[in-house]
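Meet the record:
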Amino acid sequence: FDTSARARFTNKACRINSFTPLIERWRVRQATENLVSTIHFARSEAIKRGGGITIDATGGWNTGWKITHTENGTTTDLQVIAGPSNLTLVQSNTKTKVFVDRWGMLSETDGGAPAAMHFLLKPTNKSDTDANAIRLCISTAGRFLQKQQGAACPG
């Protein structure tokens, strides 16, 4: 390398690295919106079908999830969502299934009482309080709240 080639290479590397936080922010937001969309769809299907809906992330939320409907012992996949890339996604109690009853209420156990829960979404290998981390809070009534930098959900 001559000095001018080295300078051009260094400048390009710096410009590429400066986009990393922006790309991470987009990935976290996209995954958050995918999760919100999934929950809306699952609630709608549960009300329409009289319950029996599960959001199943058996392999872990990072690997993706699916919405299933179980009726008379037969389970059918309604929607399958690929896992987000380069993100860590964790449910508040490390559960890999969320159940939706006939009223569209979410719980962590099949037939269980409606429960508030949250999901933490953050770039891989970053802290829970990273500038791009989002904590998606879901109240027992089903309202969503996004907390920036992984801040705690209210009460």
Notes: The two ends are 59 Å apart (CA to CA). The chain has a mean pLDDT of 90. The first strand starts at residue 53 and ends at 56.
